[in-house]
Amino acid sequence: MKTRAFICGCSGLAFTEEERRFLAENAPWGLILFRRNVDNPTQVNDLTSEFRKIVGRADAPVLVDQEGGRVQRLGPPHWPAYPAAARFNRMAVADERKAEIVRLSARLIGQDLRACGIDVDCLPVLDVPAPGGHDVIGDRAYAAEPGLVALMGGAAAEGLMQSGVLPVMKHVPGHGRAGADSHLELPRVEATLAELETADFVPFRALSHLPMAMTAHVVYAAIDPSGPATTSRKVVQEIIRGAIGFDGLLMSDDLSMKALSGSFAERTSALFAAGVDMALHCNGNLLEAREVAQASPVLDGRAAERAAAALSLIAGPPMPMDPVDARAEVESALAMAV
Question: Is there a contact between 292 and 18 (Cβ–Cβ < 8 Å)?
Fold first, then answer.
């Protein structure tokens, strides 16, 4: 079975027989986990190992949103609680020191994930908050200054890769101005292109060399007044690939979010028509997932090259680190947050 260009979720702590058949028949590129899929390290290891066995690829990626703060799928008592991104910016230290602590924290997150078979983290959040923006981003953002977001987000990406975990920068080309939560409705940003270029695009442009990025389900009226970035060929080609210069693997945000309309087959077809490389469907609903799978092409061509290039970055052994010393350094620095 050839790999198809989509990432799916699952319903619980272990695969059902129906899910096993679905995975074997449709061969998704990756699997994404949520809280409903996580209990303890042994169980997560079993789940990730079985996924790779079913699809027949030892390097099949397993993703998670492990940002810290309110977006953390693996947490106590089996995994540490990590701070939200904004807390790092409240440390009373120089920006370079903030970035170093972000990098160390991301290395620790990466170690946690890699130890239980997860090798892609949907981090860093590179959205730049703006007045009037919905708090769906809020403290998930590192700072309100684009340059500092780029510095700290780049450090997070570096830390993850040092632990053998791929970063996914999100939500390109920027969710910070959105006045609504795209999980619930379609946000519309009215900023001019000049405003977007001098703020929102800056962190993504600075980190355009990173291997993976996730689109925003947001309409940018100055670029394409009728379609969200995820399904807008103009946004994908002229802005994400063009003005921002990102040539890595571009995946959609979750297709089950209410920002998008149409059937799941229509949503999936639209994102591929726009030039997105990979569809993401998270909620584990097999009826929806089957539509996504059927509308997703075989992973080949430039998208396959981008996927292989991303996975090659974590093919070797992780950089060794003493987690006790690193965690003590992070905690000591965070104690200086104001």
Answer: no
